[in-house]
Amino acid sequence: MSEAGRSDAPQASSRAREEQSSTWSATLTWRAHDVPRMESVRVQLSGNRIKAYGRIVAAATPSHPAFSASYDLVTDEAGATKRLSLTVTLAERERQLSIARDEENMWLVQHHTGEARRAAYDGALDVDVIYSPFFNTLPIRRTGLYQRTDSVTLPVVYVRLPELSVDPAAISYSSASDGIKLHSPAAETTVTVDDHGFILDYPGLAERI
């Protein structure tokens, strides 16, 4: 083997290891702490890009009727949400919602009725869905808060279930030794995450099983 061949081999091996370490897939499942509700999602990571296919299943509670919500999410290379499709099924009907962000960072929100709205949502790069531990992962990974100590307040496109209403909101994250402190329209708590930035425990909402 030539000197060039010997020198290229370690570099190629290093590149292969880097590509392998940046590519990851798993099925993650969370169970609510005090109500009959679960979420399961198949996640595929490629660098900072995320593809996710998940479902939330909830029995009736005083705050909402029984419903299921399935979603299909794709982010860009930086981890910012590119598009999200949601389908909510209730006993009496099924409804769809589509959310997409264009190159100008404008969001197009389309309902099953044909109603559509294009807006900036205060410059949001992430979507948050109520009752979902998974969607809190998106800004935590995108900003790297699971790897460093910092505090950020971020605008989000906030989706409520099962009604599929969409509004601008702001969520604050502050990483510390005991987890990541979170303040959102639905909660103020400290969440813990795994080595990839995905939620392990969200007190008051759900824990991973």
Write the topology of this structure.
Elements: H1 3-22, E1 23-32, E2 37-46, E3 49-58, E4 67-75, E5 81-89, E6 94-101, E7 107-111, E8 116-119, E9 126-129, H2 133-143, E10 151-160, E11 165-176, E12 179-183, E13 188-193, E14 199-202, E15 206-208
Descriptive terms for the model:
209 residues, mainly beta, 2 helices, 52% strand
Question: How would you characterize the overall build of this protein?
Answer:
This protein is 15% helix and 52% strand. It has one domain (24-208). A hairpin with a 5-residue loop joins strand 13 (188-193) and strand 14. It is globular. The protein contains two helices and 15 strands. A 15-stranded mixed beta sheet has the order 8-7-6-5-4-3-2-1-15-14-13-12-11-10-9. With 209 residues, the protein is mainly beta.
- Supply Rg: 19 Å
Number of domains: 1
- Helical fraction equals 10-25%
Biggest sheet layout: 15 strands, mixed
Widest beta sheet: strand line-up = 8-7-6-5-4-3-2-1-15-14-13-12-11-10-9
The gross shape turns out to be: globular
User: Separation of termini?
Assistant: 51 Å
**How would you classify the helix and strand content by structural class?**
mainly beta
**Number of DSSP strands?**
15
- Pattern of helices and strands: HEEEEEEEEEHEEEEEE
The proportion of residues in beta strands is over 45%
Count of helical stretches: 2
Low-pLDDT runs of 5+ residues are: 2-7, 12-20
Mean pLDDT: 91
Summarize the structure.
The protein is mainly β. It has one domain (about 25-209). Helix content is about 15%, strand content about 50%.
